[in-house]
């Protein structure tokens, strides 16, 4: 498989780790879903550094997005939002 567009599908949960096994993928789009967790990584997926392919998934983190925040340390690291 070289191209996969799963955008706008109301997908939720984590991206299965098996996606890291896609060896020939050159185009990928997971945007505008409700995905969460760490993005699976492989050498091939590292060739897709555009963060927009994962956009509009507020719970998703990892390369090429920001790192994951551990909820038990988010206050200590300054990553939490101040209360109004």
Automatic annotation (TrEMBL):
Q: How does it sit in the membrane?
A: Single-pass type I membrane protein
Q: Aminoacyl-tRNA synthetase: present as a keyword of the record?
A: no
Organism superkingdom:
Eukaryota
GO CC annotation, single: membrane
Spell out the InterPro entries in the cross-references: Leu-rich_rpt, LRR_dom_sf, RLP23-like
The alphabetized UniProt keywords are: Glycoprotein, Membrane, Signal, Transmembrane, Transmembrane helix
Q: What is its main location?
A: membrane
Q: Where in the cell is it found?
A: Membrane
Quote the protein name from its UniProt record.
Answer: Uncharacterized protein
């Amino acid at each position: 498989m070289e191209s996969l567009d799963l955008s706008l599908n109301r997908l939720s949960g984590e991206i299965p780790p098996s996606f890291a096994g896609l060896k020939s993928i050159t185009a990928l789009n997971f945007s505008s879903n409700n995905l969460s967790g760490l993005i699976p990584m492989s050498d091939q997926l590292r060739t897709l550094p555009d963060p927009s392919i994962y956009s509009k998934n507020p719970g998703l983190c990892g390369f090429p997005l920001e790192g994951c925040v551990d909820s038990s340390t988010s206050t200590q690291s300054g990553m939490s939002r101040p209360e109004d």
